C-alpha cells in the first residue's frame, strides 16, 4: 500500500488538471490539490478507491470555489479569461487540446456537475462507475449528463491547430508584423472573423470589450503595440497546449498571449494582462530559469 507522499506523486498532476479545467484558475487548482492531500491525512479510504476518492474531494472543493466566486465574477471588469499556464508535452494530463483558452471558456458555460462529468470522461478517461461515485449520481444519470455536455460543446471548434507545423512560424510572423508596423502583413495573418479579447481585470489600460474582424483587430494591435516600451522582452512559450507569447520587462511579466489558429490564420487572440492572473505562470518561468542554471 502506498503512503501519502506516494499518492501525492501519483495523482497530483491528474487532480491539478481536473481542478484547473473546472475553475480556469491555476492558483486555485494548486491550492485545492494541497488541501485535498491535507484532508487525506484525516481519512484513509480503501486503496482501490483512492483515485476516485481524491477526485471526489477535488470536485466538492471546486463546487465551493465556484459558488463563493459567483458574485465576484459578475462584478469582474472586462472579459474574463482563465489563468494561463506553461504546458509540457511530456506531462500526461497537461498537454492536450482541452487546455486551450477557447476550450476552457466553453467549459465555463456548463454547470459544475456537467463540467466535472465531461472532464473526467474526456481528460481523465474515467469509467462511469467512478464518475458516479465522484459526483454522487447513478451511472445512467452520468451517461445522460455527459451526452448533454458533449452536445452543448459539439458545435464549437474545440481543437485549435496548436500542433500544426505552421503554428510557430505563423506566430513569429505575427510578432514581426507588429514590430515592423506592417499592417498589410498583419491583415494577411488574421482570419476575417478574428476575435481579440484581453483580460486586465480593470487593472491596466486596454479594451474592456472583445474586438472583432480583421480590420478592427489589426488597427487596435498596431495602435497598442506602438505604446510597448523598447525594453519589453518577447518569448515563445508553450502556453495552454499551444505556442504562445510571454511579454515581460525587468519588473516581471506584463502580458501572455494565447492563440487559436484555423487554416493557417489566427482566429482568436487571448491576452492575459491582469497581474493577479500572471503569478502562477511567473513562478513556472522562474522555476524553468532555475532548473536551467548549472
Automatic annotation (TrEMBL):
Ranges where the RNA polymerase sigma-70 region domain occurs: 8-71
Transmembrane segments: 241-259
Keywords linked to the UniProt accession: Membrane, Transmembrane, Transmembrane helix
Single GO MF annotation: DNA binding
Residues of the RNA polymerase sigma factor 70 region 4 type domain: 102-153
Matches recorded under InterPro entries: ECF_Sigma-70_Domain (IPR052704), NTF2-like_dom_sf (IPR032710), RNA_pol_sigma-70_dom (IPR014284), RNA_pol_sigma70_r2 (IPR007627), RNA_pol_sigma70_r4_t2 (IPR013249), RNA_pol_sigma_r2 (IPR013325), RNA_pol_sigma_r3/r4-like (IPR013324), WH-like_DNA-bd_sf (IPR036388)
Record GO biological process: DNA-templated transcription initiation
Subunit structure: Interacts transiently with the RNA polymerase catalytic core formed by RpoA, RpoB, RpoC and RpoZ (2 alpha, 1 beta, 1 beta' and 1 omega subunit) to form the RNA polymerase holoenzyme that can initiate transcription.
NCBIfam families to which the protein is assigned, alphabetical: sigma70-ECF
Name recorded for this polypeptide: Sigma-70 family RNA polymerase sigma factor
Organism per entry: Paenibacillus hemerocallicola
